[in-house]
Amino acid sequence: SHATNSFALAVFIGLLLRKQYKFIFSALLFWAALVSYSRVYVGVHYPADILCGAILGTIIAIFVYYLMKYVNQRFTLKIIIN
Questions:
Q1: Mean pLDDT score of the chain, rounded to an integer?
Q2: 3 contacts: CB under 8 Å, gap ≥ 6
Q3: At what angle do helices 2-17 and 24-41 cross, to 10 degrees?
Q4: Which positions ≥6 away from 52 have C-beta within 8 Å?
Q5: Which of 19, 25, 30, 77 makes an SS bond possible with 14, Cβ 3.0 to 4.6 Å?
């Protein structure tokens, strides 16, 4: 769960802030990789667990990001001024 959560958070926030901060995406991915590596280092997970968690977290983050964009675009209040 550490890999999934850290990669989901890193990718989602990276997608949200990539236009404002140039290197935020790579810094957050580095942070997520360090968290994931720490799980292998202490011996509680295998590398395949970490890889699958990273892939799952990335997929979830991308899905939630585009769902948020769709909902924001679809349901925002549009005021028509004549």
A1: 91
A2: 32, 35, 36, 39, 45, 49, 50, 52, 53, 54, 57
A3: 170
A4: 3
A5: 25
The pair of structure tokens assigned to 42 is: 């202490």
What is the pLDDT confidence band of residue 73, given thresholds at 50, 70 and 90?
Answer: confident
Taking only Cα atoms into account, the Rg of the chain, rounded to an integer number of angstroms, comes to 16
CA atoms within 13 Å, Cβ hemisphere of 25 = 12
What gap in Å lies between CA 78 and CA 68, rounded to an integer?
Answer: 17
C-alpha 14/C-alpha 23 separation (Å) is 9
CA distance 65 to 50: 22
Count of beta carbons in the 10 Å neighbourhood of residue 28: 22
Q: CB atoms < 10 A from the CB of 50, how many?
A: 21
